[in-house]
Write a structure and sequence with these properties.
Blueprint lengths: L1 H17 L9 E4 H4 L10 E5 L2 E5 L1 H4 L11 E2 L1 H5 L17 H17 L1 E7 L4 H5 L5
Amino acid sequence: MALIFFHLFLRTRQHLVELAPKSVFIPRGYTLEELSEYDGVKKPLAFVSVRGVIYSCSMEMYGVNAPYNAFAGRDSSRHLGKVKVGREESNADWTTLSDAHLAALKDWDELLRSKYVAVGWIIPSKDFIKRAEAFEP
């Protein structure tokens, strides 16, 4: 009986050794320029910023040729709030969105928060707020 437990112990221990360690990100601030590196092309990671929080998202959904790649490597709050695919309103202040768009954005934020790890936050550029003035709320 002791031999069986010892054998199971060794198999479990061997299995633990075979597991690759996960990359750990210490959360930090990212400029919009730094964030743009994480679009799944320049670096093999897809970061998406929603309401100023940056999430490390799956390459299957946000990487190259993936359905949500348009949102990777940028603050996509305005697009997600408006349920609109594109890049023209990315990296712009989202707080000026209409109440309906803010509610949709909150839903996206909750979804990403439940599925992915937050790796940082946005350090807005000087024109982050000014850019939003050009768009409909």
